[in-house]
From TrEMBL:
The chain crosses the membrane at residues 12-33, 45-64, 85-103, 123-144, 156-174, 194-216, 228-250, 262-281, 302-319, 334-361. GO terms for cellular component: plasma membrane. Pfam families: Acyl_transf_3. GO terms for molecular function: O-acetyltransferase activity. This is Surface polysaccharide O-acyltransferase, integral membrane enzyme. Residues 7-347 form the Acyltransferase domain. Its main location: membrane. It is a multi-pass membrane protein. It is found in: Cell membrane. It comes from the Bacteria. Belongs to the acyltransferase 3 family.
Length: 379
């Protein structure tokens, strides 16, 4: 069966990439003493669905291309997936580690066992943990296929049970679990659990798989319940913002403390992820204005490379702002965000073009070889 191309997934990738840039921009904005809490909420709270929804999109795409009814070869699957994710992960980890050593003169990260920890937990750059978790999902794909088969027998009951379990697990992991054991390796595993443990995002991944398997029914359900979907999105977003403002204005939390409490793994964060996922899929499953469709499609096309390269762009923008003694005021923060978006997209486009001339470079940095049609056009 030919693979379906679902534009909504491309649009969601583009939107999520914008959200990831917002989250990381918000982190940099804390360097300014008088951070605007409302702009910070836009950058850090509204965007909290961005990383989890990538797992939904990944699972949806995987099960559209290899549904449960189709023959599944684990070895062939792992070869393709590791090429698409593991190779870029290793290449970009090495690139970021080399850059850190070059910029700082610090060679300590190359010493054992620290170098192993950097590669194992995605420590080379703050966005790479996503790829570590994604590789974990891929490695356990036979298990997820069996789980999806079980859930499909009673989808609503199965997903609701998984959602409740997800909230309980994330609450324990986020707020109660601490690393205080005598065993060094156990403490290390607990300390970095957010960087590799797939269980934190199991519900949203399985939701993507189930919705893919029931795609026509899923679209029909979204259309029938569009008002409920809209209300759920607004209600859960309101819950996130209420929690955030309560911590900031009534509990006197710092903005950093507040966002480290109101995140995508918090109970309301899990519900917001679900509400946002359904809302954006419903929205993007309908025809969009031509310019908006083109913009989101472009962002979706380059989202993977933008995700991988934007920390380098942010680093040098901050270096330049520091050299010019320009503080990250709210206005500068907004400009910083759009400059990061523009420069990262340009870099992604350049890397893609160079990849057509140097296929092995494309394979290392993007996990795929350029299409022969593109190579012929360049020639």
């Amino acid at each position: 069966m030919p693979k379906q191309h679902i534009l909504a997934l491309d649009y969601i990738r583009g939107l999520s990439m914008l959200g990831v840039l917002g989250i990381h921009t918000g982190a940099y904005s804390l360097a300014y003493p008088a951070v605007n809490p409302h702009l910070f909420a836009l950058l850090e709270i509204f965007t909290r669905f961005s990383v989890p929804i990538f797992f939904f999109v990944s699972a949806f795409g995987l099960f559209i291309s290899q549904p449960l009814k189709a023959e599944f070869s684990y070895l062939a699957f792992m070869r393709r997936r590791f090429k698409a994710v593991l190779l870029p992960y290793l290449a970009w980890s090495l690139l970021y580690m080399l850059h850190y050593t070059w910029a700082s003169g610090d060679f300590s990260i190359w010493n054992r066992p620290l170098v192993y920890e950097y590669f194992l937990f995605g420590l080379a750059s703050y966005q790479l943990y996503f790829l570590v978790i994604l590789v974990g999902f891929y490695a356990l794909m036979p298990l997820w296929r069996q789980l999806v088969r079980c859930i499909l027998k009673a989808p609503l009951a199965g997903l609701l049970s998984l959602l409740i379990g997800q909230i309980a697990f994330n609450y324990y992991s986020s707020y109660l679990l601490t690393a205080g054991f005598d065993n060094y390796y156990l403490n290390l595993a607990i300390q970095h659990r957010m960087s590799y443990l797939v269980l934190h995002y199991l519900f949203i991944f399985i939701l993507g798989a189930v919705c893919s398997e029931l795609y026509p029914q899923f679209l029909a359900a979204l259309e029938r319940n569009k008002r409920v979907v809209n209300v759920s999105f607004v209600a859960t977003l309101t819950g996130m913002l209420f929690f955030y403002y309560h911590l900031v204005y009534f509990k006197q939390y710092s903005l950093e403390q507040a966002v480290n409490t109101v995140h995508q793994l918090s109970p309301v964060g899990v519900l917001y992820t679900l509400g946002a996922t359904l809302f954006w899929f419903k929205t993007f499953s309908r025809p969009l204005p031509t310019k908006l469709s083109a913009a989101l499609g472009c962002l979706g096309r380059y989202s993977y490379l933008v995700y991988l390269v934007h920390p380098l762009v942010m680093y040098y923008l901050i270096v330049e702002l520091t050299r010019m003694a320009i503080p990250l005021t709210p206005t500068v923060t907004v400009a910083f965000y759009f400059a990061t978006l523009a420069l990262s997209t340009c870099l992604a486009s350049i890397i893609t073009m160079i990849g057509t001339l140097v296929p092995l470079l494309s394979l290392a940095l993007t996990g795929s070889l350029p299409k022969q049609e593109t190579i012929r056009q360049k020639a």
